[in-house]
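Input (structure):
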C-alpha cells in the first residue's frame, strides 16, 4: 500500500484530524463517481485508521482495523450533534435525511383541469376549470430522486402493513412517480417542504391521464369521466372502491389469459424499496 498522507489545518472550532476511513471495492477507481455509493452487487470493505503526526507536523494515515458497527454508531452520533432536532407533525410517517413519508387525509379541495383532449360527453370538465372535488387519503414518499404518490383505502394514519392503492390524480405515472413537468421542485428534503410537495400534487393543472392510468380504476369510463362525475354532482366523498391495488399485474384481465396472484404492496414495502 502506498504512503497516504495529507495536509490539514485546524479549524476555528478547534477540530483536530484524528481518524480516516478507507473504502475498498473490487472496481477500478475510474468506474466510480466521487462520493457515490458502489452498486449493491459490488464487493466492499472499509477500514478505520488513526492519524499520526510526524516531527514536521504532517499527518499520516497509520495502520488500521476493519470498520465495525460500533465505529459507525460512534461517528454517526458525533456527526448527528449538528442536526437540529425538530418536532414531527402527526401525519409524518418517516423523517430521514434521504426520505420523507407522510399521509394526507381525505378532503374536498379545489382541482385544476385543463384537459387537452376532453371526451365529447363531459359535463363539468369540458373546458378549463377549477372545481372542488373529493380526494381519497394519500401517501406521499419524497426522496432525492422524486416523489411517490399513492392512495389509501381508509382515512386514518397507515401502518407498515397497510395496503396502498393507485392514485387517481392525473399527473401521476402508473409506477407512482409524480410527473413534474414544469412544476418547481422543493430544494430541501425536510418537514418544511411538505406544503410545497403537496402543492405540486394537488395544485397543478391536470391535462390528461398518463399512459396506463385508465386501467388503474374499476368500472367504465376511465379517470377523466370519474373526475367529471364527481365534479358535476358536487360529490363530497371519493369512491375508493373504484381504485385498484397499487402494482397489481395486468395479467388475467383478458379472456383466455391465466390469472396470477399478486401480493398487495404495503406502506412498509414502499418505504423499504424507496430507500436510497
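Output (sequence):
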Amino acid at each position: 500500500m502506498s504512503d497516504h498522507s495529507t495536509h490539514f489545518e485546524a479549524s476555528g472550532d478547534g477540530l483536530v484530524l484524528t481518524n480516516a476511513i478507507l473504502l475498498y471495492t473490487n472496481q477500478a477507481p475510474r468506474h466510480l463517481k466521487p462520493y457515490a455509493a458502489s452498486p449493491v452487487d459490488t464487493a466492499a470493505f472499509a477500514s478505520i485508521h488513526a492519524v499520526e503526526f510526524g516531527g514536521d507536523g504532517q499527518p499520516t494515515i497509520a495502520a488500521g482495523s476493519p470498520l465495525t458497527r460500533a465505529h459507525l454508531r460512534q461517528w454517526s452520533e458525533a456527526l448527528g450533534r449538528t442536526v437540529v432536532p425538530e418536532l414531527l407533525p402527526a401525519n409524518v410517517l418517516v423523517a430521514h435525511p434521504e426520505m420523507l413519508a407522510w399521509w394526507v387525509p381525505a378532503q374536498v379541495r379545489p382541482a385544476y383541469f385543463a384537459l387537452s383532449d376532453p371526451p365529447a360527453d363531459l359535463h363539468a370538465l369540458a373546458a378549463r376549470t377549477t372545481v372542488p372535488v373529493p380526494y381519497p387519503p394519500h401517501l406521499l414518499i419524497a426522496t432525492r430522486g422524486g416523489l411517490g404518490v399513492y392512495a389509501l383505502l381508509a382515512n386514518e394514519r397507515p401502518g407498515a402493513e397497510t395496503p396502498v392503492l393507485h392514485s387517481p390524480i392525473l399527473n401521476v405515472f402508473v409506477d407512482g412517480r409524480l410527473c413534474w413537468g414544469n412544476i418547481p421542485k422543493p430544494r430541501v428534503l425536510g418537514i418544511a417542504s411538505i406544503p410545497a410537495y403537496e402543492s405540486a400534487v394537488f395544485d397543478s393543472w391536470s391535462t390528461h391521464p398518463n399512459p396506463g392510468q385508465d386501467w388503474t380504476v374499476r368500472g367504465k369510463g376511465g379517470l377523466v369521466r370519474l373526475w367529471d362525475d364527481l365534479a358535476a354532482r358536487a360529490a363530497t366523498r371519493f369512491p375508493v372502491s373504484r381504485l385498484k391495488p397499487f402494482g397489481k399485474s395486468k395479467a388475467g384481465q383478458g379472456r383466455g389469459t391465466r390469472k396470477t396472484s399478486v401480493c398487495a404492496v404495503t406502506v412498509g414495502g414502499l418505504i423499504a424499496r424507496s430507500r436510497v
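Notes: The chain is about 15% helix and 25% strand. Residues 1-8, 249-261 have pLDDT under 50 and may be disordered.
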